[in-house]
């Protein structure tokens, strides 16, 4: 997935005649006129990607909705001769929004791209909704309470970025229709760099919570 365009995105212009082959170099412009490295985004021929390198073995659950807080719970009588069966028989939709806990570490020269790097990094999903039809049943032991709940499951995940433009230090002539004397020749590298950690959304579902 490529980066979204933003205010500091580089401007791609045509390579001047007589310069190095466009297959190996491209003429790019940083908004500040510098020849600092550039992250590949929707404005450039190549796109920087996020790559997962490590993740936790276990996931954990965020309960985004629980029925007992809205009066939806039941109890199997203590003197019941056998377990009870419980079925809420309703459908429920919950909208949720959560902080992804995203942490990005990149060289200081690339800090101006943090907003765009965040858009391509896998995350816990800053918003979404879960719809569950609670038409399935669960067995409730005598004395136990039961409530419908909706869960978003997530996993701690770590990764790096892959792909970056390095300046050759050579100026280039932009398109005649967009003159600018602060453009530079860049070469694309598929190297991995930087580091990110976040909480990736794995799944969301509805179930029942049982307790005494």
What does the radius of gyration come to?
26 Å
Largest sheet: 8 strands, antiparallel
Which percent range describes the beta-strand content? over 45%
Assign a percent range to the helix content: under 10%
Overall residue-averaged pLDDT value: 86
Query: What is the general shape?
Result: rod-shaped
Q: Low-confidence parts, pLDDT < 50 over ≥5 residues? A: 1-23
Order of helices and strands: EEEEEEEEHEEEE
The DSSP helix count reads 1
C-alpha end-to-end distance = 47 Å
Structure description:
Helix content is 3%, strand content 48%. It is mainly β and 212 residues long. The strands form three sheets. Strands 1, 2, 3, 4, 5, 8, 11 and 12 form an eight-stranded antiparallel beta sheet that branches. A two-stranded antiparallel sheet has the order 6-10. Strands 7-9 form a two-stranded antiparallel sheet. The longest helix has 7 residues, at 114-120. Residues 1-23 have low confidence and may be disordered.
């Amino acid at each position: 997935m490529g980066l979204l365009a933003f205010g500091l995105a580089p401007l791609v212009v045509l390579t001047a005649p007589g310069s190095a082959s466009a297959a190996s170099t491209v003429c790019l412009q940083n908004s500040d006129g510098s020849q600092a490295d550039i992250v590949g985004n929707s404005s450039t021929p190549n796109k920087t990607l996020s790559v997962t390198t490590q993740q936790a073995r276990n996931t954990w659950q965020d309960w985004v909705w629980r029925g007992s807080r809205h009066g939806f719970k039941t109890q199997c009588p203590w003197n019941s001769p056998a377990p009870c069966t419980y079925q809420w028989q309703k459908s429920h939709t919950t909208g949720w929004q959560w902080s992804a806990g995203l942490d990005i570490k990149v060289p200081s020269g690339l800090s101006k791209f943090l907003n765009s790097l965040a858009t391509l990094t896998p995350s816990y999903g800053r918003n979404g909704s879960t719809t569950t039809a609670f038409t399935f049943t669960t067995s409730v032991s005598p004395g136990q309470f039961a409530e419908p709940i909706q869960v978003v499951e997530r996993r701690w995940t770590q990764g790096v970025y892959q792909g970056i433009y390095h300046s050759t230090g050579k100026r280039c002539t932009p398109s005649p229709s967009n003159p600018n004397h602060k453009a530079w020749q860049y070469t694309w590298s598929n190297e991995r760099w930087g580091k990110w950690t976040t909480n990736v959304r794995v799944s969301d579902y509805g179930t029942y919570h049982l307790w005494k």
